[in-house]
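Onboarding guide, step 5: your first structure request.
Type a short instruction followed by the sequence, for example:

Predict the 3D structure of this protein.
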Amino acid sequence: MDITALLQSLCVDLTAHRGADLTARSPIDVGTLATLRGDDAAAFAAPVAAAHAAFAQWRDVPAPRRGEVVRVFGESLRAHKAELGRLVTIESGKILQEGLGEVQEMIDICDFAVGLSRQLYGLTIASERPGHRMMETWHPVGVVAVISAFNFPVAVWSWNAALALVCGNAVVWKPSEKTPLTALACQALFEQAAQRAGGVPAGLTQVVLGARDAGVALASDARVALVSATGSSRMGREVAAVAARRLARTLLELGGNNALVVAPTADLDLALRAITFSAVGTAGQRCTSLRRLFVHDSVYDTLVARLKSVYASLPIGNPLQDATLVGPLIDKAAGENMQRALATARADGASVHGGEPAAVDGGEGGCYMRPALVEMRAQTPIMQTETFAPLLYVMRYKTMAEAIALNNAVPQG
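The system replies with structure tokens like these:
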């Protein structure tokens, strides 16, 4: 199925979005998927105003009725899971099973939100006044801005949107400029579901396309009550600073530098599978990716030898093919960042296994990298830095206290 047919199957009409500001490319081969018009700061006024007007109506709709709209949307996602999952893979480069899994996460949060729509409880509190009691009631906040990253191009929006909608809010979404088509597909499916469900005010959910300036414009808009941003820690600091100038609420899901400690009594077969999936899934481009591995001295040589063997045999290739376990990085810049990190680790005395570019038939333009195991002598600054790539730093430890101290000795949360 070509990209045009795939978008049509997802009810996407690009007519209103045609332009030359943004080029949607597939990391599989860097082929152009579409050229789109970006929204500048001035263009944001209309969608935010439409969302604000829709909120004024939506907040008065009973919560269970709002939940019914989300339920219908979840059914639409079920019906289009294969197509949307494939688009996620084409646009973000994650393997097909991960693309499908991401759509399943959307379905799951819709199910959760439907139940939540009948459980928006408040407390009843005793009062010192005879014959009186105090009641707690939760109110919608207004327009919620969602700024999402390329690595989870649809799930992050759904986690925010499904809950925001059942709680009576409107949503304006600024997706990553690297994955605009998946956002337009989600918006098209929601509009279709809203029409089937009925009673949904026009403009309740909006998509605006653009890069950094678009996110700043959203965070600056006084009509936006809450800014939910997912991405790098650098991006989060910028969003938080912009929103703080008007004392707006923020919800930030940012970088990570996750560690795993392998104890001397660990099941090494289980550890091997857990380490590999958590370190190389999505080509290491997750805030939840495993980046640091601390292995007890008594099992280090055995486990690391097995890891080297597994890493050397990982199938790297087109993420649409069933046999592939590691797809491309999102772009050339990500590959260059990985190589800089490896060069720094080598300068720190590390032994690097893997990490070289991988040739993939039909993917000559893509950035395919063999996952890297990096044996470190000490936890140097590069190990304390999040690098969005499939590299795993490995260190020995002797006591659990030492392992816990190493785990905690990073600036990330």
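Each response can be followed by summary notes, for example: The chain has a mean pLDDT of 96.
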